[in-house]
Amino acid sequence: MTAGSPSGLRFAGEVRRGGFRLQADFTVADGEVVGVLGPNGAGKTTLLRALAGLSALTSGSIRLGGRLLDDAAAGLFLPAEQRPVGLVFQNYRLFPHLTVRDNVAFAGRARGQSRRHARTAADRWLARLGLTELAGRKPAQLSGGQAQRVALARALAAEPSLLLLDEPMAALDARTRLQVRAELAEHLTGFAGPALLVTHDPLEAMVLTGRLLVIEDGRVVQQGTPAEVARRPATQYVARLVGLNRYPGRVLAAGPSCTVELDGGGTLVALAGEQPVRAGQRVLVAVSPAAILLHAEQPAGLSARNVWPAVVRGLELLADRVRVRLDGRPPALVDITPAALAELRLGEGSPVWLSAKATEVSCYPEGEGE
Amino acid sequence: MGFGFLLLPLLALLVRAPWRGLHRLLSDSAGLTALRLSLECATAATALSVLFGVPLAWVLARVRLPGIGLLRAVVTLPLVLPPVVGGLALLLALGRNGVFGRWLYSATGYSLPFTTAGVIVAETFVAMPFLVLTVEGAIRSADRDLEEAAATLGASRGMVFGRITLPLVSPSLLAGSVLCWARALGEFGATITFAGNFPATTQTMPLAVYNRLEVDPEQAVALSLVLLAVAVAVLVALRDRWLRPGGGL
Amino acid sequence: MSLTRTGVLAGTLIVLLAGCGGSRSSQAGAGSSGTSLHGSVTVLAAASLTEVFGTLAERFRAAHPGVTVKLSFGASSALAQQIQAGAPADVFASAAAKNMQQVISAGGATGSSNFAANVMEIAVPPGNPAGIAGVADLARKGVKVALCQAQVPCGATAQEVFSHAGVTVRPVTEEADVKSTLTKVETGEVDAGVVYVTDVRSAGGKVKGIAIPDAQNARTEYPIAALSKAPNPAAAAAFVAFVLSADGQSVLSADGFEKP
User: Fold this and answer.
1) A282-287 and A245-253 as β-strands: parallel, antiparallel, unpaired?
2) What is the ipTM of this complex?
3) B197 contacts C175? CB cut-off 8 A
4) Is the peptide bond before A248 cis (omega within 30 degrees of 0)?
5) pLDDT (tens digit, 9 = 90+) per residue, A244-278?
6) In this complex, which of B21, B95, B203 lies closest to C187 when CB atoms are compared?
7) C10 touching B, CB under 8 A?
8) pTM: predicted TM-score of the whole model, two decimal places
9) Distance from CA of B238 to the nearest CA of C (A)
10) CB contact burial A13-44 (16+ within 10 A = b; e otherwise)
11) All chains having 3 or more CB pairs closer than 8 angstroms to chain B
């Protein structure tokens, strides 16, 4: 990349689809992988479609490596087939009537390469993704993980300048997901241009991306590294997503630690963060599900400063732990091991006690990061 | 009772068929000529229908313009129009004194009526809607997602159509072609009105059946049997499509 | 055995076709032999008689107000088949002796009388685009000619004309009856057609007639008969008698038909 020439991706604009409106302004540097997080209907797919050239901006522009892809004011719109953008669709969208090899060779053929040339190039990509043995198969004969890899190979074979991945692992089972995730990380690292990965799996986002873009209701509500976002979720959605208990409230007493009266009832004592807070200020209190302990009886002699009773309302089995949903003041999500679950004999309606150390509870001014 | 009403005439055709003399009747050169002409014309009409009908089906399925409903109505019209009226309309349009045919005739000295080409035109006019509507339905329900995927891989509209859409609708295209072919093979009204009736040039099987009825009814029945056999063969070929409950066009 | 079976089958088919053509069974009036006629009389007549039988039916109705005349026109050969297949008709007027003979030998009628004769003429579109002057021109290459098919009287008679003239005419279309042939000329799709003199006359200005010299021309006689199975035999006999009467004959000659 020549010094001084604009590089990477710059999106600054608005897309309308029916009654829905997405507005965003962000950049992605070459070689950077940005995760796009957001609930269903937030506008993630709309964003990808605009970038890929499947829908046009209603205002603003998209610039990639110094080249304008879309400029509503100038009336410029490069359609999908003219954009150097690769898109891995959520359900892969492999061509059912073509073999794996011809799926991957499709982009080459589209650029006017001879069948032989395109197939040779496709074979190189298949080899790189470990798909050589599947070259002659039809998509219907592939497992989910295989199909995902073929979809990636097909997109990469077009040698795009921008790579977009729409929930690339949503359709995979948990075991396959682990394996594919590792492979995908490798390929994303090797990709020279900007890449965007839409996901709603925080772990996927943490592993695969260097920065997160959180979209809700058609706008970007938070940007930052996965660690930043996890530590200080700006909205309830992000908090739940990253597995945080997040409570808005008002500071009752400030000092080295602060006591916060929560809007939903109850109080929590938190350690003051980098930004000092003062009494009466509106704040957000966050505590990780792993930081809350669960007791069958009221704990005695604990150093924990937050102790409160609750009732079990639901149990959810995650990969290696159990997430317990509890009603109390405040309500909470708590992660425990399956062994602990068995030991405590928990079921819906079981009364329990919760405790959390003040050092595990963080408190920060509301509105930050939004 | 409805079933009996539909079945009885076909049974009668079988019961009263001159089975013993069938071979002689069918190997009669006039009958063979009509059969060959029918097969050739129906095949040519089907080829024309595919050539012009598939792009038309694509436009009907994909183009969003105000006049598209009207266009579809025009395409559907020959389906419901009595074929004789269709033949008359063709004559007024393409005949030697027709709106367009007059110009063609004065420029080239060529006119379609009474030629084999005229038969093909008449059959295409009547049969093409079957193909267009079948293929249009398939294109409409074809996976837009795959077409988008092809576009993101750099495929032009034409390539998307040729390499993705068309192969995906090929089962419907085949079914539509068979349907179109069968309709063309049985065409009578438009053919006799527009193209006339002369052995080896414009006298197709249905016209021959009609002619033979006055002269040699046994042969008319024998020729009818051939057409019935073709109809049954079409039904068998498309059985998965039509003979399943709920299977539509 | 096989013949009978096929005959019945063909009959079924033809009755179906005839039904489509609009010829309907007359109301039962058989056996009534009163002096005043009533009911309806169904007349099957050759296509070339279309106009003149319309006039004849009007005159007949004026003389017998109680009778409805139902006319059905077609190629004589087709009508003969319909009668043999059991079409409920009272009178048959054929354009050729051959087709009447078929009906008689099948028992459809006991005898017939010739009531008119006709000769052929060449019909061309008003501008005569191919410049037809005589029968020989019809054999010219590039001239489009419409004829009746050979099984139909007008087709058979036209072939006689060609053999008299010593020419071979290859038509572009063979039509089922004379009116279809005339239509092809009227629409200008063909350069010429060979039809009856009376057809050219009834077409008015829509076609132009080119006379065929007597030496080459052929003549066909029109026989008429009341049918043996006529539902209304009294009216049938009265209609035949009317056609043969001086009144009927004057109507025919006014339309250009010759005396038998």
Assistant:
1) antiparallel
2) 0.71
3) yes
4) no
5) 788 888 888 877 788 898 888 888 888 766 667 78
6) B95
7) yes
8) 0.69
9) 30
10) bbbbeeeeebbbebebebbbbbbbbbbeebbb
11) A, C
